[in-house]
Each structure stands twice: as structure tokens, then as C-alpha cells.
User: Fold this.
Amino acid sequence: MKVMRLKIMLIAGGIGFLAFLGLLAFVAIFISNEEHSSDNRDFIHDIGDVSVSEDVLKHQPMVEKYAQVYGISEYVPTLLAIIQVESGGKVPDVMQSSESLGLPPNSLDTEASIKQGTKYFSGLLHSVEKNGGDINIVIQAYNYGGAFIDYVAKRGSQYNFELAENFAKERSGGSKVTYSNPIAVKKNGGWRYRYGNMFYVDLVGQYFISPQFDNELVQTVMDEALKYEGYPYVFGGDNPSTSFDCSGLTQWSYKKAGINLPRTAQQQYDATESISLSEAKPGDLVFFHSTYNAGTYVTHVGIYLGNNQMYQAGDPIGYADLTTAYWKKHLIGAGRIKQ
Assistant:
């Protein structure tokens, strides 16, 4: 099974050096070449968890070299996806990392760009070591700068699109620009704030390969659920026209596989056979308590994918790593659907 890596790190308090880098990256934020990333669909290579173009693929050995130097080899697929977004691998400064050194745009040659971009990404990862967060924070911070990490840490330590949007809104003074990227058109009609790119997580995430399962029923469920990746969380949402909340997504997706689940997370918990997470298999449900005040013990549900990963209606809908401090704190266990 191939699943997007969502290795969760922890957030360190204070901006410090990364905030400084974030300021230096200010210019890069406005000129990153994300426009092409949804338009080029002629991918012919699958690398680990991502699909990338031939132009990006040729940089893989050097990415692997510096990922090993900085101790983040497991993030090579993510770094390749970032290159796909930043440049498509077609300019020397492939990771658009010149500005993080205080240099003019496109000042670095290819090796220097990959070395600095990987070092910068590693620094963002290590800056999340204290308070619990997810890889999406790191990915968005690659575009926004390290100040975004501190911004999220003060607001719950979990990424969601609204935080990315509000950060850009504050930094831009509310100034908007037209943005015709299909991801933006699908989400808000085609605009963004004039600061960085609030869609950066979605832009990078689109290059990850959808998970594949041996179980036909599970594949049917996930084929449906993945249609809504990146959609916003909507409380009470239970169909594609409104988007979904957590139990609305599971109910809808399992119905496509011929399984009728009750509507709420508590009801779904009551309708399944309780098992431990260590016993869970792909396609089981995962349940959580006290994620918000719902008036019930069970407040959240996701689809277990194996390897401590789940797919869930967060904000946005997408993957989550169950080894993070947040999910461990709220975990109840898994539930096997009675067929």
C-alpha cells in the first residue's frame, strides 16, 4: 500500500532563526511558480509516494544526497513534490531557495539550491519538536517562512486551510489577486491573498500517489473518499454538494461500497466491533474522544489505512498520522464494521 507520508513533528516555541529565514524568504513567497503545477499532467514516473516529471526525476540523486546529510531521507518524495511545484525542475534554482539565504531570486545553481532547500526544510521540521503539529505545517511554512509555524502553534498546533488563508490575509492586508490554478478555482472560484500561496499544501499534495489496497471493498471506499481530498470540513456536511464532517465522510464513502453506517461518530462507534489500534486493518474505523464538545463521548472518526495512518475529514479533508501527540491524546481505539 502506498500512502502519503504524514510524519508528524513537534513545534518548538518562538520563531527565532526560522522567523529570520521566513523574512528573508519574503520575496520568494511572491514569485514561486505554482501556476504550472496543476496544468502539467504528463507524469511518467512514480517515485516512492509521488508522481513527478522527467525534469524533476533527474534531480532525485542530489535530493537523496542532501536529505541524507540533513537526516531527512524519508522526506525525499515530499522534497521532489516541492521541486515540482516550485520550478518543475526546469530552472537552475530548482527549489527556489535563494531568498532563504538573503540572495536575489534564482541566484543559486542547482546543487546549491537543493542543498539550501533541503537544509531549510530540515530546519522547519526540527522547529516542530515541542508542541505537536503535522507535515502540512512544514510544507506551508516552506512557502510562507518559519513565522507560520509559530502562528499555528498559538492556534492549536494543527494545520488547516483556514489558518493558511488567515495568515496570508493578515500579511497582505486583505489584498486579493486572481488565481486561476484549478485547485483554487475548485475551492473558492479562483483567487488568493497577495502573500505567498495559501494553497501550497494542496499544490504539493496533488503529486502524492493515491493509496492502493488488496481488499476490493476498502479500495472502493477509498476511491470515493479520495475524491474529496482538500475539501473543507463542514459541520453537518454529508454529501459532495456541502462537503463533509467526519462521520458524514465515512457514512458516504462506505455507502458506495454497499455498507450502511449510522450518521454520527458516536453511533458508528456503537455499531462497530471495538478493537485496539494494533489490531486494526485498512478499512477499519478509528475513533476519538473530546476533540470538541459534542455532547457525546465519541467526537471524531476516520478511516484506518495501516501504518498508523488515517484518512479523515479534518480541515481540509486528507491524511493524518496517528503517532502525533494530538491524536494519541484523543484516541479511543479502532472499530471493525460488522458485515
